[in-house]
Amino acid sequence: MTDGITSGEGWSVGSVDALGDGPGFRKIRRELGVSEFGVNAIVLPAGIETGFHLHERQQELYIALSGELEIQFGDGSTHALCAGGLARVDASTPRKLRNTGAGDAVYVIVGAEGGYVGRDGLQPEGEQRVGRSPER
User: Fold this and answer.
1) Predicted pLDDT at 94
2) How far is residue 133 from each of residues 2, 84, 117, 129, 136, measured CA to CA in Å?
3) Please, what are the domains in the chain?
């Protein structure tokens, strides 16, 4: 167990803050034992940009947690991402991020290859379904 990360049989719980201090990467995958997809958090200081990168295979989802970010794509388009903002980027699409705010910006990147599994949720034996949210 890493300080601030708690694990049990089939689960781990923690926070971005528990994964490190200062700017840079927070290795969520390693620290929480994620094995089915890549996932990291990044703390990006004010005024810093990442530089362009792309991937061979994995599509990525960027999730802004805090601060003010701008994501730019290889075609020159730019888009603001504030807390709760999302951006899906295909593997071969160049992308870079820039912190446009006055303080640190924090975002999570989830990456994978191979496709969507589909609805495979089950209820444990004896569990009763109480309510159901509408299909989306």
Assistant:
1) 98
2) 35, 21, 20, 11, 9
3) 36-112 (2.60.120.10)
